[in-house]
Amino acid sequence: MTVSNNLAVGLFFIGLVSAPVLCFLPKLAQFVWLYSKPSQLRRYLHADKEGKPAWALVTGATDGMGEQFAHELSRQGFNVVLHGRNPAKLARVQSELTSAFPERAFRTLVADCTAISCHSCSTKDTHNVDFDAIVSALADINLTVLINNAGGGISPVYQYLHDSSTEKILETTNLNALFPLLLQAKLLPQLIQNSPALVINMGSIVDVGLPVVATYAASKRFLNCMAESLTREMAMVGRDVEVLAIRAGGTSGTSSNREKATFFEPEARTMARAALARAGCGQPVVIGYWPHAIQAAVLQALPSFVLEPAVRNLSRARMEQELAMQ
Q1: 100: Cβ–Cβ under 8 A, 6 or more apart, which residues?
Q2: What is the mean pLDDT of residues 198-221?
Q3: Rounded-to-integer distance, Cα 174 and Cα 243, Å
Q4: Which contiguous run of DSSP H or E holds residue 234?
Q5: How many CB atoms lie within 10 A of CB 202?
Q6: How far is residue 122's CA from residue 134's CA, in Å, rounded to a whole number?
Q7: CA of residue 76 relative to chain centroid, distance
């Protein structure tokens, strides 16, 4: 073999070894930058032209992550509108926040996110969400942040689609997709007027298509597309409204998970802080908590013959666990 041939072979093997490294380094740099970049949340903590202070609306604020969003936003200087469907729970959270942050103002908003139908657009059916009433209730404040946190599965959470009732499918879709969509549609004019403004829609990493949660997973994927579309819409009309879909993984201290917090299943406060820390990240869809991003990357890297049976077995185990607890 000639010297030139030896050189060619050497260069080939160097390229073979270095190519994966060179492909990985930009992704690693992007990952480090994304999760070390300072949050831009304070951009949205501004008074309006009349001097009114900034307010944030948190849906599903009576428990878990929503309650922690309210605490964190209050700590960072926002007044907060607390949404829920249980007046007693809302009163409890408002009382706790008032004691913890006496310099802040708080309001409550009662609405059942699952109660949406075509009748809500044409009648005064009290069982449907009255979005116009919500807009009226918030018209006098400087609303700059909307956290669409309300969501979750309708019991039984883990169930084959063909065994799910029409009522359950509609309630799950209303709660996780249609309510945040309609609420944004109604509040965007106010957010645009009060810009810069921020919308965060809490999604889930199950949006990759986990079995036995088809309706829930599809509803969460809906939020990703909505964030991408609205980000482009705001750019088209030159409005300073940031729209984020935050994909979350397992989180403890929520209504569906009371287990002890771990590295990969943080407590609700940690997850809420991680979501708010992504404000200004420059991406419309992002995993909020960096260990969840590592989980997602590892799963994505697995070959399908390993991933598919593992996903099916995990989903089957969770479905059986839920059935055993009933």
Answers
A1: 71, 74
A2: 95
A3: 20
A4: helix 214-236
A5: 29
A6: 16
A7: 19
Q: What is the DSSP letter of 246?
A: E
Residue 56 phi, psi (nearest 5):
-125, 145
Q: How far apart are CA 59 and CA 146, in angstroms?
A: 8
Structure tokens at 204: 């889930």
Which CATH code is given to the segment(s) 39-292?
A: 3.40.50.720
One-character DSSP codes across 36-72: HSPP-GGGG----TT-PPEEEEESSTTSHHHHHHHHH
Question: What angle (nearest 5°) sits at the alpha carbon of residue 63, between those of residues 267 and 90?
Answer: 150
Strand partners, 56: 80, 145
Kindly state the tokens that stand for 89.
């729970």
Residue 34 vs residue 253, higher pLDDT: 34
Q: What residues form DSSP beta bridges with 243?
A: 199
Please write the tens of the pLDDT for every residue from 257-273: 667 878 888 899 999 99
Q: What angle do CA 222, 146, 294 make, to 5 degrees?
A: 55
Residue listed under structure tokens 């729209």: 243
**Which residues does residue 248 pair with via DSSP β-bridges, in sequence order?**
204
CA distance 67 to 85: 14
For 169-191, how does the pLDDT look when each residue is reduced to its tens digit (9 = 90+)? 999 999 999 999 999 999 999 99
Which CA distances in Å does 232 have to 40, 73, 225, 279? 19, 26, 11, 17
- The sheet that has 79-84: what strands, in order across it? 106-110, 79-84, 54-58, 142-148, 197-204, 241-248, 285-287
Instruction: Report pLDDT for 120.
Output: 43
Nearest-angstrom CA–CA distance, 289 and 271:
6
